Amino acid sequence: MIEGVDHIGIAVRSIEESKALYERLGLEVTHIEEVPQELVRVAMIPCGETRIELLEPMSEASPVQKFLDKRGPGIHHICMRTDDIGAEDHRLRVSGFQLLREQPSLGAEGALVQFLHPKTAGGVLLELSEPQEHSE
Ligand code: ZN
């Protein structure tokens, strides 16, 4: 089941430079992480019940670099949180969405993620994420 918007991904050239804008809004970066398998560095900024995710390319080969070259900084994707990404992967595939990966894979914060191609999702890159279980 899709439970809500986990975060909104925004492509930036530099987290260091871009985070100042969010700090001026009164928000704050709580977590910065490199996701080498996706060639991005991400910064998480909590905002009410959702979060802003700043995405900075780690190399020229990063898909986020290609996005920046083509469109400049801006909204890159919207991520919806699910409690069962395996079931969603199957359900959406069967209902005709084009998924970008063979199967859900590890993303930032150890979450399992999958992406829906914008072509079959109304022009929006949609990410699905099942957060890692926290044993607290
Ligand atoms: Zn994301």
Briefly characterize the structure.
This protein is α+β, with helices and mostly antiparallel strands and 136 residues long. It is built from 3 helices and 8 strands. Zinc ion (ZN) is lined by residues 7, 9, 53, 77, 79, 127.
Describe the structure.
The chain is an alpha+beta fold and 136 residues long. The chain has one domain (2-135): 2,3-Dihydroxybiphenyl 1,2-Dioxygenase, domain 1, CATH 3.10.180. It is 21% helix and 38% strand. It is built from three helices and eight strands, in the order βαβββαβαβββ. Strands 2-3-4-1-5-8-7-6 form an eight-stranded mixed β-sheet. The longest helix has 10 residues, at 15-24. The radius of gyration is 15 Å and the shape is globular. 26% of the residues are buried. The model has no long low-confidence stretch (mean pLDDT 95). The structure holds zinc ion.
**Biggest sheet statistics:** 8 strands, mixed
What would CATH call the homologous superfamily? 2,3-Dihydroxybiphenyl 1,2-Dioxygenase, domain 1
What is the level 1 CATH name? Alpha Beta
Radius of gyration: 15 Å
List keywords for this structure.
136 residues, binds zinc ion, 38% strand, alpha+beta, 3 helices, 2,3-Dihydroxybiphenyl 1,2-Dioxygenase, domain 1, 8 strands
Topology diagram in text:
Layout: E1 2-11, H1 15-24, E2 31-35, E3 40-47, E4 50-57, H2 63-71, E5 74-82, H3 85-94, E6 105-106, E7 112-116, E8 126-130
Parallel strand pairs: 1-4, 5-8
Antiparallel strand pairs: 1-5, 2-3, 3-4, 6-7, 7-8
The chain binds zinc ion.
